[in-house]
Specification:
Strand 3 and strand 4 form a beta hairpin. This protein has one domain: Thrombin, subunit H, CATH 2.40.10. It contains no helices and six strands. It starts with 24 loop residues before the first strand and ends with a strand. It is mostly beta strands. The protein has a six-stranded antiparallel β-barrel.
Amino acid sequence: MLLFTGCATHNAGEQADPVLSASALESVGHVVWVDTAEETAVIRLERGASISGRTLTARNRADIETARLQPSGARQGNTLGARIVEGLPNQGDEVVATRDD
């Protein structure tokens, strides 16, 4: 049987290390098509992805934001049409949504 004991002290006025929290972003799909002239994109949603009332953001493999997207209301199965609000997504970009908490 192992027993580990110990204590930690903090001087007055010092702050403890911040508590790590789960990411506020949830992967919901990937960009499969972009029309820059019409400022629209098509997103292939992951199974069970919930996007209702959530902000969508496209980001590349380096996790750098490439665009903000707004669902257009056009949806068929797991394919969703979106309007490009800001930036320019690329085919293959991951689409993340702010998580409802």
